[in-house]
Amino acid sequence: MFQLFMEGGLWGMTLLTLELIGLLLAAWKAPAWVREIGLLALISGAVYTLLGISQVLGFVREAGEVAFPVLAGGLRVTCIPVIYGLLIQALALVIRMVQKPRI
Fold it and tell me: Nearest Cα to 77, choosing from 89, 66, 69?
């Protein structure tokens, strides 16, 4: 897990982890913020994924020809933050479903 954290980018994954901690604290102290923190995590993951794709394309432009396995590895790494953000958003949805009043 730590290897995926480091591959996903230190700043982006740290921000997403802080959002996860904020989500868990909000579920306990401020339930109204659960949805907003989940959406923030999803957007943060998407932004860091787009930044990673931009970086990969910049390297491809500078290098000229790049082998497909190298390109595929770079694209795999860029998908890590958005997957983490989606998992945080899914957790936020589960928390909201549990916290909703029963009929």
Answer: 69
